[in-house]
Amino acid sequence: MTSLFRGNKLAVAGLVIVAGLIFVAVFATWLAPYDPATQQLMNRLDGPSWQHPFGNDELGRDILSRILLGARVSMRVAATVVLFSSVVGVLVGGLAGYVGGKLDVFVTAVVINSLLAFPGILLVIALVAFLGPGLDRMIFALTITGWVGFARMARGQVLKVKTLEFVEAARALGASNLRIFISHILPNIVQPVLIQTSIGMAGVILAEASLSFLGLGITPPAPSWGAMLNDARTHLFDAPHMVVFPSMALVMTVLSFNFLGDALRDWLDPKNLGK
Amino acid sequence: MVAFLVRRLALTLPIIWIVVTLVFGLIHMVPGDPVAQMLGEGASVTEVERLRHELGLDRPMLEQYRAYMTGLLQGDMGISFRNQEPVASSILSRYPATMELAVAGTLFSLVLAIPFGVISSVRRGRLADRAIGFFSLLGVSLPSFVLAPLLILLFSIGLGILPVSGRDGFASLILPAVSIGGAFAAFTTRMVRGSMLEEIQQDYVRTARAKGLSERVVLYHHALRNGLIPVLTVIGLQMGAMMAGAMIIETIFSWPGVGRLTIQAIFARDYPLAQGCILAISLTYIFINLITDILYSAVDPRIRYD
Questions:
Q1: A27, A212, B66, B195: which is deepest, by most CB within 10 A?
Q2: Which of residues 8-37 of B touch A (CB under 8 A)?
Q3: HSE of A72 in the Cβ direction (CA atoms, 13 Å)?
């Protein structure tokens, strides 16, 4: 594992920021200098100061505190969605690849292809728009679209692994299909699942921010980076700090998960073995 | 080629059918009564019943489905509940604006991605490659709704050279196109780099060099032509994804396209219009991908025999 980070400064930076984010997300309520919902209309749209390092928003709320609490919202949504997506995706995709035949055709050609027929975030927006707002519905909508990536990846990996000799050996020793799948195949596709998890976190954090930006995600006054950016839009002229700080938080978070995912990919790439 | 076309179409039709069915089902996913949701709390029982009848929601599900499908085949997507206009004509009148944005965004991303991708592959591991790699990862992580306000801050408010919003001539297209194309430019750069890295190791590139051709000709006339083939598929996917991304960008820039219409319809709880918009965007995406696949097989005949 140490070889993953040796000489790869971006991966180290990514890991440090992700660790910091988890820390912030867990301890947000203690770290935030103010209550994120307290309005101080006297300080409305004030720029950064010693009391409020990131300034105040249109209702005079402390932006730093809102960003810290926003990290908790982002991370909670992303972790939940990625957890559900990876479990469902790996099981469904993995089984489709392992069993093959009609099940595989149904899962890949019908279910996955239909879900992929909706571009980008459209299906999520459609689901949220019709199901109505709310954290649980957003998580549901993001999982419905999120598991597909895991399923495709898991299927491809299982197709590769199931022809290998150790699987044949296990079968020759009389192992059941279930046992082969769980204790021989799954452990061997963990690495690509990890890469997908890291990149998936970045994707879900972006998607949550997009939904909240459009007003379809987290309901106010709960702080969300996307919603903060939407509030900032009307104050581009008089309070540009409202755009700058939430943007930085969002981009840094997504970037660090992508750095980590990239580093994992390079590290696990057999072409780079021995480097 | 004909056999390929037939097979590809045969794969597409069921997908279209499933997408249409899913979009039809959306209105039935609304918790509670969609009609009461649309009319709001102050609506009387007779109003609710009247609208339910107009939308056909009082009929059995199967009959509703049949009516929806036959309507679609005749180009009828229902009536917008807010402004009483046919959904199809509302969408059609805004469609060109969205296509303009998607095409401009794609062109912008290619103009950046092709040269940077080529430079990155040729200078592999050097400073230029690492810098381009860093910026493309930054670009991928920079959502359009972050890029757009920053661009507005710089070019509209700071320098005052580009309009903040609206659709009024070429100048008003620049910021929306750059905002929507930025992340795709970054992604395509990585694609071009990867694809070129494979091509420049091929024998025909060595032959071209051995013939004494200039490096420029070897790269751009020989390697890039093949290197761009896999990129073509991504371009199709991107143009389609931009139709979805347009929902955000059109809202930010008050661009009068289908994306903004979708969001407006969602907030107005105008379910028939929202369904129509979602369907239009999805069908465009499917269609663009179909075209890309066909082009792909025309450019690279090996694909057809898979």
A1: A212
A2: 11, 14-16, 18-19, 22-23, 26-27, 29-31
A3: 16
